[in-house]
Amino acid sequence: MAPRFNIPPLTRLLLAALLILSFLTGALRYRQWARKGVDGQRPDDTPASAILVPYLTIVPQLSLFYPWVLLTSTLVESNLFGLVITLVTIFYGGRYLERAWSSAEFGKFLLIVSIVSNVVASAIYVAWYAVTGDIMRSLTTVAGGVALQAAFLVAFKQLVPEHTVTIAKGVVKMRVKHFPALFVLCATVAGVVLRLHATLILAWMGFLTSWIYLRFYRFSPDVASAATGRTSGIRGDASESFAFAAFFPDPLSAPVAAVSARVYQILVTIRICTPFSPEDVETGNEQAHARGEAGLPSLLNGAGRSGVRGGGKREEAERRRALALKALDQRLHAATNRAPGVAPGLSLAPPEQSAAHEGQDEGASRSGV
Q: pTM of the full predicted structure?
């Protein structure tokens, strides 16, 4: 029996929109290219990809009256290689993130990354034209899913930073937390060497926009509160593993941390960012530890292969419940250590784990620790 993939609704919509908009834009470009060739209005060496479609992709000088291109341009690829990469990114990354966050939160994340990245990229090209007087800068096409690719890597860095991805049967191994920096580095090299300036700008904007949103603004449920049925949550992610310097290799993390700390203090002073309290940092570290121990679930899970409808949702719900119980259990044990009067019977750990904790406590009390 052929495998069936359980794709969440928003991810399915994105895949369809990417295919439709990319092929539609390609058809319109080829039609205009062929018509100009018949009329003798184009040089013989002009490629079809150079034809502008300002009502589906961003052309800074022409797209002012087509505001919807701030969204559609993200789902338009001009070549087959880019189309395949973005399809794979949305198929695998979208499936996981939509299940982990919910469709509404995943959609909000996509809107923020797409709009902010495209607005800033357009402004950069307009300013570039204003400074240099080069009209081609304002007629550059800005399109593609590069910003989404960078944003998805940042989201995975938050959710499973210590997960190791194995490529080519173990020949290449790399932790998820290193992917965003590597992606931005490759985009920067491509932008400088191959003059793919739009790729460079979109990669950096997708990286920065997604990190700022997830670090300071995204409201997420507290896993410990989820276990008790309460609806409280936390804003942002104050964990040390998601700090800006944590995206860079160890030799660079110290200078990056010094610069980013200074920028953060300036933003707090002008009240753009709210400072994190020690409790926020502790909670963020607990959340990050719980997510890291849960690991990265299989994107092609057994439920998707067997065709059981809703199996992926049940698996994700069970994973969230396990995370919630683990985080709440850690908090209760920490509270017990700080306040001996708290009853140890409140632990939510399984019987074997509770017995192990009791044995450790007895051993510690006998040794005088």
A: 0.77
